[in-house]
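S.,

As promised, the ribavirin triphosphate run. Input:
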Amino acid sequence: MAATRTFSIIKPDATRRNLTGAVTKMLEDAGLRVVASKRIQMSREQAEGFYDVHRERPFFGELVDFMISGPVVVQVLEGENAVKANRDVMGATNPADADEGTIRKTYAESIEANSVHGSDSEENAANEIKFFFNDDELVG
Ligand code: RTP
Ligand code: MG
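Predicted complex:
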């Protein structure tokens, strides 16, 4: 099967605890390859734009505050069935529900400070990659 791409964010709770390498290792061990990566401080406008689909959800304001509370690492991941492979290794949104061996079970602090984001479809992955990266920043 051909390799596909997905988009990942290592969230502020993880960068604060110096877990960028540890989280990336779990992504790599799941068969994903980092083909682009950068550490950024998101602006409020950027975070609101990125999470626009959640604008009406009760947790939107807190989520945006959290996502700009420190640096994040945005990454493009490549691999077989990348969206699903990434979602599988991330685990459930709430770490209390996440399976053993997943990133969120291992590292997440709470349903909000849950260490990673991963695109939930190939269409969203393409849009999220475009939101943060130019084509010349992706090196397969
Ligand atoms: P993500 O988009 O970050 O990969 O996570 P997800 O699909 O598992 O979760 P989603 O429902 O899309 O929610 C996006 C992020 O919002 C925060 N959240 N807080 N306080 C709450 O009840 C709550 N619910 C979700 C989490 O940081 C979640 O990853
Ligand atoms: Mg989501």
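The longest helix spans residues 122-132. The chain has one domain: 3-42+70-137.

- D.
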